[in-house]
Structures are given as structure tokens and as C-alpha cells.
């Protein structure tokens, strides 16, 4: 069965803008591998001495077997983030828009 899923994420403990851009490059690779690179927007937010990477889907993704895909995708996001920024932490939030109606 397929479901519509949206997600957003935030990567904290990023050292600086250079490291944040490296995180985005790593995550772009993951999104390409997953076939969703044109459906996810990412940006660097800097301010108050902190640097974050944020991202979100631009519209719902149709995912089959989401109960398997979502946990694996979360693990992959964490792995790709650690490749660029070992001290960084990624948190994903899932939204199921069909449940809102």
C-alpha cells in the first residue's frame, strides 16, 4: 500500500557555513539516490552564532511500504550528515497529509 508522506528535517551542531554546505552536498547525493532530489528543498540558516541545515519536501511523496522506507531513510540521512559533519545531529519530522482530512 502507498501513502502520501511529507518530511522536514533540521541538522544541528554544524560548525560553520562551509560544513553546512558540505552537509547539503551529501544530502543531495542521498536525495538523488532515492529519486527525490527534485522534491526536496534545502537551505543553510545562520544566525546567533549557530549554523543549521534545514530541508523539507516541496509536496507529498508517494511511498510504498513506508513502514520500511521511513526508518531506513532516517538512518541514511544520519549517515550522510555524519560523513560531512561528524558532530552534527539530524532530526526528521514526518507528516501524513491524508490524515489531516
Please tally the helical runs, counting DSSP H or I stretches of 4 or more residues.
2
Unreliable segments of 5+ consecutive residues? none
Report the radius of gyration as a whole number of Å. 14 Å
Which structural class matches the secondary elements? alpha+beta
Strand content: 35-45%
Give a count of the beta strands, DSSP E runs of length 2 or more. Answer: 5
Mean pLDDT reading:
94
Q: Into which percent range does the helicity of residues fall?
A: 25-40%
Overall form: elongated
Main beta sheet = 5 strands, antiparallel
| Straight-line distance between termini | 19 Å
Secondary-structure element order, N to C: EHEEEHE
Structural summary, described in words:
There is one protein chain. The chain is of the alpha+beta class. It contains two helices and five strands, in the order βαβββαβ. Strands 1, 2, 3, 4 and 5 form a five-stranded antiparallel sheet that branches. 18% of the residues are buried. The mean pLDDT is 94.
Summarize the model shown.
This protein is α+β, with helices and mostly antiparallel strands. The chain has 2 helices and 5 strands; from the N terminus they run βαβββαβ.
Notable features of this structure?
101 residues; five-stranded antiparallel β-sheet; alpha+beta; elongated; single chain
List the helices and strands and how they pair.
Elements: E1 2-12, H1 17-34, E2 40-47, E3 50-57, E4 61-64, H2 66-84, E5 89-95
Antiparallel strand pairs: 1-3, 1-4, 1-5, 2-3
Amino acid at each position: 500500500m502507498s501513502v502520501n508522506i511529507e518530511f522536514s528535517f533540521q541538522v544541528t551542531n554544524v560548525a560553520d557555513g562551509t560544513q553546512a554546505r558540505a552537509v547539503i552536498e551529501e544530502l543531495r547525493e542521498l536525495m538523488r539516490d532515492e529519486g527525490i532530489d527534485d522534491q526536496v528543498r534545502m537551505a543553510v540558516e545562520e544566525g546567533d552564532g549557530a549554523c543549521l541545515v534545514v530541508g523539507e519536501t516541496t509536496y507529498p511523496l508517494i511511498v510504498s511500504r513506508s513502514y520500511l522506507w521511513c526508518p531506513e531513510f532516517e538512518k541514511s540521512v544520519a549517515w550522510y550528515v555524519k560523513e560531512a559533519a561528524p558532530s552534527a545531529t539530524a532530526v526528521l519530522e514526518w507528516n501524513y497529509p491524508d490524515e489531516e482530512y
